[in-house]
Amino acid sequence: MTSDDSIIRAEHAAADVLYMRRCLQLARLGEELVAPNPMVGAVIVHDGRIIGEGWHRRFGSWHAEPNAIRSVRDRSLLPSSTLYVSLEPCAHYGKTPPCAELIVREHIGRVVVGMLDPNPLVAGRGVELLRQAGTEVVTGVLEAECRALNKRFLMLHEHHRPYITLKWAQSADGLLDRCRTSAAEPVAVISNRVTKQLVHRLRAESMAILVGTQTALFDNPGLRTTRWSGRNPLRVLIDRSLRLPAGSQLHDEQAPTLVFSELSAYPFETHAEVVQIDFRTDIWPQVMQHLAKRQIHSLIVEGGARTLQSLLDAGLYDELHVEVGMSRLGEGVQAPKADLTGASMQIFDQHRLYTLIR
Ligand code: AOF
Ligand code: ZN
Prior knowledge:
By secondary structure, the protein is an alpha/beta fold. It has ten helices and 16 strands.
């Protein structure tokens, strides 16, 4: 190889990274509407010029590649173009025909892929189909960034459970709440305006939100996304003996609710769906398996102390979001015990927000 060759190769590699970054930007535009599908972006480049762009916009609709191809004005340029895509083109007939077949049909000469698709329906078949048709394929460009973008989708397909985020706010003296004996006593508010909004962003990013019985009984939470744009997550409640009274917010129609219980039905009309599980053994594998079966790729757990601690002890979490407020409560419910070594910290109006990604 001459030194000119190696300079050209280095330039190609730098360009590949640049266009893959653009794919990732485009992919993010689908954030609110594509779940449980991955966010995917695609860019078509001809002779150093972007001639087409597209992304997966909503669940059930066109994938990134056909959207990018459709945006190209002069399709005769496609055979001498490179298509960049942040996820391996699919090879299956799903809600739309296989993207890899479309790429072959359009005779696109070169394809650069961010990461392979772990979905067993695809899993390497897309790249194989392209190579068999004589297309040059490069894989693994900005792979770590592509994986990070779709960490929730990956958890579902690689580990068959949702990506789990545990979230709580504690007082300066390490308490979650005052000791309350009934729902009539008001909850101690720890979060401030900004951190509340951030919690709602997390809700918008999650397909489901879970609380334990005590929290549902005492706080009567609505668990909807109101302070950030996006969908309401599926509300999930652990209610072993179906104690949540009629009229509680989780029984309403504002968002769907799923209740895990050992009983089969509430003794009154409710919009909540009850799923029976066995409480004599560990409930978490049963809960996670059920959620995965429903293609729920992400779950945020917002309390209470026992539920959070039990998931911490089981090691069943991928992210921790812990807010430490300014007020001191004196006496009350101890916050969960978690090792926050290595967590990043941000300050919002004197409240510290620790984020730990495992
Ligand atoms: C692509 N490009 O933009 C996306 C892909 O139900 P379907 O037919 O929409 O298929 C969903 C699956 O397709 C999804 O689980 C993932 O494996 C892949 N997503 N593939 O080529 C895209 N979003
Ligand atoms: Zn596809």
